[in-house]
Amino acid sequence: MTCKRSLVQIQYRPPLIFIGAIMAKRDPDTLRHSTSHILAAAVKELFPKVKLGIGPAISDGFYYDFEKREPFTPEDLKRIEKRMAEIIKRALPFKKKMLSRSQAQELLKKDKERFKLELLKGLKGKRISFYTTGDFIDLCKGPHIKSTKEIKAFKLTSIAGAYWRGKETNPTLQRIYGTAFSTKGELDKHLKRIEEAKRRDHRKLGKSLDLFSFHDEAGAGLVIYHPKGATLRRIIENFIEEEHKKRGYQSVITPHIYKIDLWKKSGHYDFYRELMYFFKIEKQEYAIKPMNCPGHVLIYKSKTRSYKDLPIRYFELGTVYRHERSGVMHGLMRARGFTQDDGHIFCTPNQLKKEIEDTVSFALDILKTFGFGYKLILSTRPEDCIGSKKNWEHATKALKEALKESKLEYEIASGEGAFYGPKIDIQISDALGRLWQCSTIQVDFNFPEKFDLSYTGKDGRKHRCVMIHRALLGSIERFLGVLIEHYGGAFPVWISPVQVKILSIADRHLKYALKVKKRLEKENLRVELDSRNEKIGKKIREAQIEKVPYMLIMGDKEVKNNTLSLRLRSEEDLGEIKIDRFIRRISLAIKKKE
RNA sequence: GCCGAUGUAGCUCAAUGGUAGAGCAGAGCUUUCGUAAAGCUCAGGUUGGAGGUUCGAUCCCUCUCAUCGGCUCCA
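^ inputs. structure came back:
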């Protein structure tokens, strides 16, 4: 079988710096790919009529695609797993076998392996390599482990549907996912990591930390923020807006709906209609904005611009709605309504490189503030695109040079650019190691043409300006989702919805507790008081579960000494401390964004 | 949108072709307590929604909505 390396596979790479992700020291791909053969062999033994797709190694394991009328059940999975263990026990060698093209074709035809035949057609060369393990034979370029004995620990993890060769118009195959390791310990570690990731799932934490909710009756993909979630979001929004102001952006505000004519002019009506929400009032058709660009463009166009004005940078926390297909929603990570930290830069072609460079460094600064790892991807000209070749080259070169001068490593996604220009995407990963695109920096030739965006040059003539679309967090929703999983809900103090929880021991301590609360609120701290008639143990337990960074316990001793007893969510009991000292301590942590 | 699974109290889950139960949360009472869960009592449900099969459906079937795992798409 073939094992195509593509960006799609790279997407499954393990998290960059998260939760101590453990990569096996040896490259485990060969082991996993070999295990996928054993999976196919077991399926063939149990279900001889099944046809084979492909079975590559992916970052944490492998999969194999099968065509089978009846879906695999979880029970089937267990049976297959058992048969795989038997095959492995047979200690079969992986043997390479070179066949001529006609021999290969004959073999696959005999087995009616129509997908393999299709793969064979796409292969170059006269001799085609196959690998055998016992009676099982598979078209494959290898390499493989020597013997099935080397598979010491494996597990089938899930079943899912997948299109043949990833194309929607192709038949749906059934994909069995699994993973394999060279020791049992590594497998256990891996499974534990998955457990931990599930515990950090932002959808779960969003509920238990009372941050946000979704409702059947409200609609799929529409986030409803609860007080604590709203607080968290506002802090991030204020932070990001301030950072933009520091870097020469001007804040603007634009409407949520526009007449359909504007969307026709911008091209969204033609290219983006499927994803847009439309409505008609008094014979006038409107659409809810899926993007913020048109508004910013109208501001630019509201007067003539001189080269002296450029670059102009507009910023808006713009809420957009996109009708995502029903199967793709994923908590905050993929919603139908979301807010972008959206900015547009209008500049001269000569300014392009510098602007890109600054924007990339801006994005990385922001990501570093939250301790994220990241990956840069440069997407180049797709087949179907607008704009002259010269423009594309200029822009792509500007992007490349900006990255080069910033000494940043990046991958190239050839032909993956938007139809209107090349882009740099930055991905960060969630608890399960899934990468999410957050920052995106896109050069656009389309808008400047369509809206005739220009400026007057030194020569007194009109010149076409260049437009950059960029979002650093991407969508606030997605970023929050990743953030929740990144911190496992234990946010640094500066963004914690509740920074301090005061826990009073008995009713007679309430007055003092209230006094302390007032004092802390005067320092702009977010404080809650738990004065319920409950035991201190219970109050602590609940504050721990809420992951409040600082707990202040107040009883007779503290009232008498005019102090607080400080406990951290890391379960540290730090004992008594003076109020002012505590304020200094927490203020410093907030300032340092720890 | 596609493949598959799921949907029972606010939350986590149990049970059944004869209209459902537990723990936590909530309310009331007792208790005023020192670093991860005090006790008692009460209340809480058109079993996601619509239709069908059946004497009878929460359970079986169809449709629909939503969620989950993927595919595809994407911020």
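Residues 112 and 507 of chain A are 80 Å apart (CA to CA). Residues 493-591 of chain A form a domain with the Rossmann fold fold (CATH 3.40.50.800).
thumbs up if we can close this ticket
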